[in-house]
Amino acid sequence: YHPERRLMLFGLHPTESATGRSATYPWVVWAWDIQRSVWQPNHKYGADLFHASAITTTTGSSSGASGGPSAAPSSPSTSAETTSGYQGNWTNGDATAQTEFWEKVGSGGTWRLETVIAAATALYAQTGRTNHIEHFWRVRHTKSGIKSQWDVEAGTSAQTLIAVPGCSAAQVGSTSEVELTLTQNSDGTDLVVERQIDSGGYTVWNTYSSQPSGTFVVNDGGVECGEVADYKARSRDSGWPADSAYSTPSQVDLTVDCSDE
């Protein structure tokens, strides 16, 4: 703070000889005029100021400071989402700076530094995550011990896919009854079982709402001897971008060795 001129001086930058200059205020990058509420560059009021890029500071970190990143990363997007991970993409603001990749689980989670990425790289493939979980990620550059601003402070959403359930069908003895063994792999999602008879097209046979993870067995008594029944299942969440993929179809042939007597 310069009490006589009522200026706040920011970014002292003594990159050249200070001979003949004030030892207290050498090479001020920018000054804030408290009375007028404006930035003052270029020798205002006789102060030894010169024009340079304004320094942006956030939570103690800077972009554009001498030796630090020239700009923050931008344009984040999420791609390649799987049941166990995703890929974060962005545009580098400074291709010579490294990039910190931070992540948290859910909107109420705690941010954690995952890794520091080499300069000139603008993507990171995250793995080892749980299916059907929303993560948030954000990045910032780091260079010479100086941090840039975040690409997006609140983070960018990444939603891992819903896992495929299991569905296996078997004839009960020589009867027309079919036993289904179902496995829910995405806890709390709806498990939808579809059936087709004699290649007539699949329709929803039953839905198990908010089904917890695990394996359970149910029976289908609505098939008759002489028919061929196919079953498949998927898990869904109305609040998620997409349902899971279907399980591999499982077929039961009741055209042979079948009697309802």
Describe this structure in words.
- The structure is a single chain.
- Strands 8, 9, 11, 12 and 13 form a 5-stranded antiparallel β-sheet that branches.
- The model is unreliable at 12-28 and 42-62 (pLDDT under 50).
- The chain has 3 domains: 7-54, no CATH class; 74-159, Immunoglobulins (Immunoglobulin-like, Sandwich); 166-253, Immunoglobulin-like (Sandwich), CATH 2.60.40.
- The chain has no helices and 20 strands.
- The chain is mainly β and 261 residues long.
- The termini are far apart.
- It is 0% helix and 44% strand.
Unreliable stretches: 12-28, 42-62
Q: Which of globular, elongated, flat, extended, rod-shaped describes the shape? A: rod-shaped
Question: Could you give the count of β-strands?
Answer: 20
Mean pLDDT: 85
Give me the Rg, rounded: 31 Å
Region (Disordered): 58-92, 235-261
Biased composition (Low complexity): 58-85
Task: Give keywords.
3 domains
List the helices and strands and how they pair.
Blueprint: E1 7-12, E2 28-33, E3 38-40, E4 56-58, E5 61-63, E6 74-79, E7 86-91, E8 98-105, E9 112-117, E10 123-126, E11 134-143, E12 146-147, E13 156-159, E14 166-171, E15 178-184, E16 190-197, E17 203-208, E18 214-220, E19 228-236, E20 250-253
Antiparallel strand pairs: 1-2, 2-3, 4-5, 6-7, 7-10, 8-9, 8-11, 11-12, 11-13, 14-15, 15-18, 16-17, 16-19, 19-20
Please outline what is shown here.
Helix content is 0%, strand content 44%. The protein is mainly β and 261 residues long.
